[in-house]
Amino acid sequence: MPLSPRKTPLWLPIVVLLIAMTSIQSGASLAKSLFPLVGAPGVTALRLFLGTFILVVVFKPWRLRFKAEQRIPLLMYGLALGGMNYLFYLSIQTVPLGIAVALEFTGPLAVALFSSRRAVDFIWVILAVLGLWFLLPLGQSISHVDLAGAAYALGAGACWAIYILFGQKAGVDHGPATVAFGSLIAAIIFVPIGAWQAGDVFWHWSLLPLGLGVAVLSTALPYSLEMIALTRLPTRTFGTLMSMEPGLAALSGMLFLGEHLTLVQWLALLSIIAASIGSTLTLKRETQITQVDVK
To answer: Which segments constitute the EamA domain (predicted)?
Structure first.
């Protein structure tokens, strides 16, 4: 039985979420390197198929019992998870990783903004927005940002917002095991689509090791960890903490894809990190309020 959110130390879900974000951005860099071989839809299908297989073996989702009021949130959570993966990979075909993640972040940022109830929460949201504004090189190179890729990233952001909102409702009783069921829903829909778009190359055994790496880094590990954090953090705090995602994506792009940052972009990262630290400092009081809502 999963630990009750009331018995979980406040720092633990924060550390878990940081590990999850690091893992998923490393996986995104690896996935992008596979695009020339199998395409973005094919990588999506590989990620979901192998990631879901791992999650099903570990968590055995057929043992879970969901209440009637949790079934619609579970379905929405699974659809959002699949849509987020599919649209994000379509985006980074033509948009740099850091920019795509920054645009995708509009989803959780909107969740953080609309669920804020205290003036101090807006300070952290404003810091995150400032960081994103300077992180995006749109002011100088808007003509070089593919509009279709940007639209895919924004669509992934909308799915991310749905993932946060419905994941908390679906996973409150079963914690990280819920992600196995949600991933199974996503795989049933998006694996056939991706495999069909990729063609015969999708079935080459040579793709299996790299596909498995993407599945572990981008699906099995981070979504399990995110579910732990998602059911133990207030919605607005979870959303604001996710402001570190564009910064981690930029660092991943620099380390694995050779994308270098300017001084302004480093300052933007510091602004985003400051927003995350600020939301963490106000966590205790917010958690006490939210636990009543989640119960």
So the answer is: 148-278
| Residue 95 DSSP one-character state | S
Q: Taking Cα atoms as reference points, which of 152, 108, 153 lies closest to residue 129? A: 108
Buried-state track 167-200, b at ≥16 Cβ within 10 A, e below 16: bbbbbbebbbbbbbbbbbbbbeebbeebbeebee
pLDDT digits over 82-119, tens only? 999 999 999 998 888 887 888 887 787 777 667 666 77
Q: Does any domain span residue 1?
A: no
| Structural domain count, the chain | 1
Judge whether 279 and 241 are in contact, CB under 8 Å.
yes
Confidence check: pLDDT of 157 > 80: yes
> Three-state SS for 177?
helix
Which domain covers residue 270, as residue numbers? Answer: 8-294
124/51 Cα distance (integer angstroms): 33
Q: pTM here? A: 0.77
69 C-beta neighbours (distance < 10 Å), count? 8
Rounded CA separation 212/21 (Å): 18
How far apart, in whole angstroms, are the C-alpha atoms of residue 156 and residue 142?
20
Note whether residue 17 is domain-resident.
yes
In a domain? residue 57: yes
Which residue reads 């003036």 in tokens?
119
Domain presence at residue 92:
yes
Residue 89 has which token pair? 């990979």
Query: In terms of pLDDT, which residue wins out, 28 or 231?
Result: 28
SS3 12: helix
Could you tell me if 55 and 226 are in contact, meaning their C-beta atoms sit under 8 angstroms apart? Answer: no
